[in-house]
């Protein structure tokens, strides 16, 4: 998500409390937020749910946007967190409904019972987040949001070398979780 200067200006105004700017900002970013959520959640309905959650988070938390980095960078984090939260919610719901499903269910490490989508990478990321939470943000910003290393370092407030090290270690951990078939 790379936005023009008008979008960045709207974000600054919205962060300062301008409700009109916030409304215009939300309308303007919605297609990009949906597209970005779809990178995490290939089922359109799931991505739409994550998109709505992300837009709600932007509306509620825009006052936290300090302008130290670009709004698009801040938004990447919000969308990634919303998509992962939506995935966890879907997974929880599928477990709750498991009693109603026949015992021959697809392998949950490879398939979403709800969406019928491959979600093994999301499972691996969730596992990484549980075991090593300091690694997940850098990985998501680089491999999902496709931010440059310098942008990630700025966003996370970390030295560039630390960011590169965390991404390298996170990738290694995800590969281990996914197994040899995903090398």
TrEMBL record:
A Pfam family the protein falls into: Sigma70_r4_2
Domain RNA polymerase sigma-70 region: 26-93
Coiled-coil intervals, chain numbering: none
Residues in the signal sequence: none
Alphabetical UniProt keywords: Sigma factor, Transcription, Transcription regulation
Domain RNA polymerase sigma factor 70 region 4 type: 137-173
CDD domains: Sigma70_r4
Database matches in PANTHER family: RNA POLYMERASE ECF-TYPE SIGMA FACTO, RNA POLYMERASE SIGMA FACTOR RFAY-RELATED
Family to which the UniProt record says this protein belongs: Belongs to the sigma-70 factor family. ECF subfamily.
Protein's UniProt name: RNA polymerase sigma factor
């Amino acid at each position: 998500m790379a936005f023009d200067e008008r979008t960045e200006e709207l974000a600054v105004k919205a962060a300062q409390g301008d409700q009109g700017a916030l409304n215009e900002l939300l309308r303007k970013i919605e297609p990009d937020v949906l597209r970005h959520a779809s990178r995490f959640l290939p089922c359109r309905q799931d991505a739409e749910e994550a998109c709505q959650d992300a837009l709600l988070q932007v509306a509620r938390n825009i006052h936290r946007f300090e302008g130290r980095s670009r709004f698009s960078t801040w938004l990447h984090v919000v969308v990634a967190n919303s998509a992962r939260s939506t995935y966890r919610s879907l997974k929880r719901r599928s477990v709750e409904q498991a009693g109603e499903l026949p015992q021959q269910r697809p392998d949950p490490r490879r398939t979403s019972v709800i969406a019928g989508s491959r979600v093994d990478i999301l499972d691996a990321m969730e596992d990484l987040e549980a075991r090593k939470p300091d690694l997940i943000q850098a990985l998501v910003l680089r491999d999902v949001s496709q931010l440059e290393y310098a942008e990630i370092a700025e966003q996370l407030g970390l030295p560039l070398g630390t960011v590169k090290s965390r991404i390298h270690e996170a990738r290694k951990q995800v590969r281990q979780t996914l197994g040899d078939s995903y090398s």
